[in-house]
UniProtKB/TrEMBL annotation:
GO terms for biological process: DNA repair. Residues 1-45 are annotated as: Disordered. Pfam families: AAA_33, PNK3P. GO terms for molecular function: ATP-dependent polydeoxyribonucleotide 5'-hydroxyl-kinase activity; double-stranded DNA binding; polynucleotide 3'-phosphatase activity. It comes from Alexandrium monilatum. This is Polynucleotide kinase 3'-phosphatase. NCBIfam families: DNA-3'-Pase, HAD-SF-IIIA.
Length: 417
């Protein structure tokens, strides 16, 4: 392609084989026409594939002001009333106001962009050609020039991550700089709950996408029907934009004498980072590496007998999980210290997703921890207390979060889920 390569997350190719369409593998570097085999070529005329994003430009202008929209439940809805379309023809305009409003935007010179997650393609639930044909028909019915972008898998291009916006502005806007102040994003996923809406929004991914990009946000009810805002723009249990910006120092326990340190916390809470960065003088014992608890206890015993301090980098979720380590510390006549990672569940889900996506970081993981494992920790854990046998318990909260030196800060501080 003659277009300049995007920087940041937009430049990151999805992991090979993880997010390809079932029909055929896309080249991670090169744009190609059509989603797969020749039988789809006719249906896909005019569409190009860049990494996991399927794109078609229906003559959209290059403009500083971008009017961007989600598709399903924003521009269109199912004709059948079902949550998901039953066929490529199962759609109608979301409301009578949609087409005149879009035509008004087009007449005023805005670039209209449709940005839609279509992860069902990579999962084999929907055919890319069917969605492309639906958008071809939708654009024809709207009668406006627009750019359509479909994110076909769960990678760095998926909303709410901002990579699709960067791809649009850097490669599909004719070199014209996009003004975030004059642009906006409209979508139905705003985290609304009854009675504001009849049915709870499935997520807040559209609102988070707008926050990641830095553009004003509207729901379709606001934008097309003129209704009042019915959601909170900043009311999230966890906001990644603040990560690592606190001045609170990590509470490293004083290790002036030999000790057995137990990390206590869910997956994705920062235990391994703490163990390797803040407790580097200790011998690290980790069950993901050693595979069994017996091997972990044996490694602890050997290190303690050699006069070394040890940090056990496991979940150590319950009193029963911790008891054998406390018994070992007592037998070896060394202090047992707990570092309790008391962080919101949302941080764990965020870091779990981040570690998968940041392929260049030392924190990268090839697979996500299953969500149920994170939920199970919060459901069943026992908070560590000194009456278990710990000499001291040190609480680590979100305010102590430390950023790895090789982390992709932009990705880390973006809403991911």
């Amino acid at each position: 392609s003659a277009h300049p390569a995007p920087r940041g997350p937009a430049a990151m190719a999805p992991k090979t084989n993880r997010c390809e369409e079932p029909e055929a593998a896309a080249s991670p570097k090169r744009a190609r026409t059509g989603p797969g085999p020749e039988s789809d070529a006719k249906a896909s005329a005019g569409w190009v594939q860049i990494d996991s994003v399927s794109i078609r430009d229906y003559g959209s202008p290059s403009a500083a002001s971008v009017a961007a929209f989600d598709m399903d439940s924003t521009l269109i809805k199912t004709k059948s009333g079902a949550t998901f379309a039953k066929s490529k023809d199962d759609w109608e305009m979301w409301a009578p106001e949609v087409v005149p409003k879009l035509q008004e935007l087009a007449a005023a010179g805005h670039k209209i962009v449709v940005i839609s997650n279509q992860g069902g393609v990579a999962k084999g639930r929907t055919k890319l050609a069917d969605i492309q044909q639906k958008i071809d028909a939708m654009q024809k019915a709207m009668g406006v020039p627009l750019l359509a972008m479909l994110m076909t898998c769960d990678d760095v291009f998926r909303k709410p991550l901002p990579a699709s916006w960067k791809l649009m502005s850097s490669r599909f806007n004719g070199g014209v700089a996009v003004s975030v102040e004059r642009s906006f994003y409209c979508g139905d996923a705003a985290g609304r709950v009854p009675p504001v809406v009849k049915k709870k929004d499935f997520s807040a991914s559209d609102l988070k996408f707008a926050l990641n990009v830095g553009v004003p946000f509207h729901t379709p009810e606001e934008f097309f029907l003129g209704k009042a805002q019915a959601y909170q723009k900043e009311s999230f249990p966890f906001d990644p934009r603040t990560l690592g910006k606190s001045t609170e120092a990590f509470p490293v326990p004083p290790l002036d004498r030999q000790a057995l340190v137990l990390c206590v916390g869910p997956p994705g809470s920062g235990k391994s980072f703490a163990a390797t960065q803040h407790l580097a003088a200790c011998t690290r014992v980790n069950q993901d590496i050693l595979k069994t608890k017996d091997k972990c206890l044996k490694a602890c015993k050997e290190a303690l007998e050699a006069g070394k301090s040890v940090v056990v980098d496991n979940q150590n979720k319950t009193k029963a999980d911790r008891a054998p380590y406390l018994a070992l510390a007592k037998a070896q006549k060394v202090e047992a210290v707990a570092i309790f990672h008391d962080v919101p569940k949302e941080l764990c889900f965020h870091l779990n997703a981040y570690r998968l996506l940041d392929t260049k970081s030392s924190l990268h993981r090839a697979e996500k921890v299953p969500s149920m494992v994170i939920h199970a920790f919060y459901k069943n854990f026992d908070e560590p207390k000194t009456n278990e046998g710990f000499a001291s318990v040190h609480r680590v909260g979100l305010e102590h979060f430390t950023v790895s030196g090789d982390a992709d800060l932009e990705l880390l501080r973006s809403f991911i889920d």
